[in-house]
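Quick check before the chapter quiz. The format below is the same one you will see on the exam, so make sure you can read both the input and the output lines.
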Amino acid sequence: MSSLNNVEAPSLNELAALLATMIAALEASPAPKFEWIGVARVLDAEGLASLLNVSLSSLKRYQSGERATPDRIAARLHYLALVVGDLAGSYNEIGIRRWFHRKRTLLDGRSPADLLRGRWDPEDAGPLRVRALARELVSLSAT
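Here is the expected output.
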């Protein structure tokens, strides 16, 4: 253990940069094995299947590990986990579920769920707008 004592403590700027790098890496790394559990605590199976654009039977197979989660579904699941995480600071579980279906002026009168229909990708314009809206709540609750 004494070999670790020769390392200088990082400055606040270095620490902030390191944390930003770690957060970016986590945000870019889907982990369906863990995200199925977390997202399913908030969104019911039917709602989650709809948002992911998968059948209920496929959803159950992915969740149980009976079938590997395809990359495109893992990316959508990861995106939903990030959005749910953003919303968790401002809403309870019921509020989060409702948030996806409430029409929003900032989404041109559409609901987040409206922009997450069909074969969407997290980098598509609609999902990017939904994520930005959810993230705004984090910045508002921090002020």
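If your answer matched, good. Residues 30 and 71 are 9 Å apart (CA to CA).
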